[in-house]
Amino acid sequence: MKLLKILFALILLFIIAVILILGYFGFIPGLSTVLGADKPKDLGVRFTQADWQAGRNKSQVKWATLPGNTPVSKSLQYSGQVTVNKPFTNEEMSALMNNRPWRYYPVKSVQIKFNTDGTAEVSGLFIKNRAIGFLNVFGVPKEAIDYIEKTLSILPSDIPFYIKGKGALTGNKVSVAELYDLQIGRLPAPVQQVNQYKGEIISLIDGYIESVTGFFAKDAHFEEGKLVFDGTLAETESVLK
Asked: The whole model's pTM is what?
């Protein structure tokens, strides 16, 4: 569903920004050693198949399969529109974020936790060899993709990440975007430097939201144990498996 893709886009852009900053400061050559752990941070969220089904029922999104010769840039397509005005729990969102059929889905082993203070925490593994396909679909310029691909080539295939921050959509635009903590493996990222790119990241996300068929967020924000969403989602998500 589009809400997940937008969330992942924001996470991925923050992670890539950090990787580029680390490269600039000379950390990349020894990054595999610095990372240490190969498992994501445990947020204590446990989910079942029932949570996944509950999330699917709330989103109402149907899946369809695209032909095998579909170009990468068209490997994720949306059509139709359904109204959604229901909260998604920690368990439901974690389950949804771990079970996606799209070939270029860029994360796995994900947990997401929504806190009382309006923050959200997300941990998981970033799948390096799916990043370029994801960025192509997202519409990132080729020059940027080429540079990111070169930088990613020296990283492990599965990269643990952890992110904590506040985020909200109002009137189908980013109204809140605050990054408090970001870790690549067990290495704390320079959050202050990443936040310097917040304006550019928000502009990119806003531009993408406007282009997404069927998606409109009147309001989307975090509360204790849930993501509150009021708006519309695409009725059908067609993917290249």
From this structure: 0.81
